[in-house]
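Q: What would this chain look like folded?
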Amino acid sequence: MSAAVNAHDLREVEAFYQRWGPDVFAFCRLFLGDEEQAEIVCSKAFLTFYRESTRLPVTGEIPSRLVGLAYQAMQPCRTQSGAKRDANALIV
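A: My prediction, written as structure tokens:
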């Protein structure tokens, strides 16, 4: 697929992120419990959504695909966090 097909206007991207960014970030932070990881995961979800989508809705409900992408991006982080907690429990 051509890059031109998935190219979004910068103002469109900015409006989309301003509208849904805080909600997706809060969702990620609640699941991960870490702001830095939540920022990384949130960015990955938006980037993937931008690449896949031909339109960026700024009204209505949050796009379910965007939330799904955020959830998918969180999975490796959740596994790593669980492993760290288990390792810390053994140390104590």
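Confidence is low (pLDDT under 50) at residues 1-5, 86-90.
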